[in-house]
Every structure is written in structure tokens, then in C-alpha cells.
Write a structure and sequence with these properties.
This protein has one helix and twelve strands. By secondary structure, it is mainly β. The termini are far apart. The C terminus is likely disordered.
């Protein structure tokens, strides 16, 4: 399955804007005017919610060197990734490719995907999620480096049943 048309190289002014967003995301004590989750730890790094509302959420993903997310898909949401800094290797459906700062990719619903940090420094990615449901339980994992549960062919994934349910996880 081909999930997208390929990475896009962004103009340098877009990279500068994304770098500014990244710097603001980690400023202590600021009041950004929307619910923010600071440095929610993941086995591969951290995820920070920058903004969100019904049907969309914006996060900053920080992936540690040599780490990668699980190979996963979502039945209720699509994602758009924008690499701010670092070097990445992306698996999206049948496609596998590197990404550098300024590159973007769209991940549609039901597309198996993951991102890996192939560099020596941190990988920072702005992730935009949109769809009917944005909860963390809309993740079907096929492979995981950290021992988290993966789906089996004989165990179908069951997404949330309420199509009108939208969430923005509160800060933890």
C-alpha cells in the first residue's frame, strides 16, 4: 500500500517558523492559552501537545538517537509530520525513505507507519493529527521495540465506537 505522494521540501521560512514553535514549546512558566502537556515521556523520547481542538491536535515529538516509534496505524485519524531538526527514517505503507529538516509527509488513516531517529542528536517532528477520534487507544501496533502489546492477525483491533467523540488529553 502506498500511503502518500512523497516528502516535500519546505521553504526555509517554514523551517524558521517551526524552529520557533519548538523553542516556545519548552519554555517554563509560559501561558500559551491552550491545554499543553509538557514532556510526556515515551520509551522512544517525548511527546508534547502544543494545541488542539475538536478533530485536530498538534504535538512536538522528540525522538532519542537510535530510537523509533512502534510500527502502527490508526483507524480514526490521519497524521502530517514536519521534520524540524535531526535525521529520520520513515516507514509508511510500502514506502521507506529518509527525512531531513523541512521535509513533510502525510500519513492517511489505516496506513502502517513509524519514524526512527537515525542521527546522533535529537529528532524533532511537529505532528498534526486530525480525524474523528484522537485518543491514544486508537493505535494498532504491528511491531514494537519496547515490549508494548502488538495486535495479532486473530485478534482484530477494536477502535472506539463513538464517531462523535473527540479528545485532547489533559496535561499529566
Amino acid at each position: 500500500m502506498t500511503c502518500f505522494a512523497g516528502p516535500r521540501i519546505a521553504p526555509s521560512n517554514e523551517v524558521a517558523t517551526a524552529n520557533s514553535v519548538q523553542e516556545q514549546a519548552f519554555m517554563p512558566g509560559d501561558d500559551l492559552g491552550f491545554p499543553v502537556s509538557r514532556n510526556e515521556q515515551r520509551p522512544w523520547g517525548a511527546s508534547t501537545v502544543l494545541a488542539g481542538d475538536r478533530g485536530h491536535k498538534v504535538r512536538l515529538l522528540t525522538v532519542l538517537p537510535g530510537k523509533r516509534t512502534s510500527l502502527q496505524r490508526h483507524s480514526e485519524r490521519a497524521e502530517h509530520w514536519y521534520v524540524v531538526s535531526g535525521q529520520a527514517w520513515v516507514d509508511a505503507g510500502d514506502d521507506h525513505f529518509p527525512m531531513l529538516p523541512g521535509d513533510t509527509v502525510d500519513i492517511p488513516e489505516d496506513c502502517w507507519h513509524r519514524i526512527e531517529n537515525t542521527g546522533k542528536g535529537l529528532l524533532s517532528v511537529v505532528e498534526i493529527l486530525w480525524g474523528h477520534y484522537l485518543g491514544e487507544d486508537d493505535i494498532e501496533r504491528k511491531e514494537d521495540d519496547f515490549g508494548r502489546p502488538v495486535s495479532r492477525d486473530n485478534e482484530p483491533f477494536s477502535a472506539p465506537t463513538s464517531k462523535d467523540r473527540f479528545t485532547l488529553e489533559p496535561a499529566r
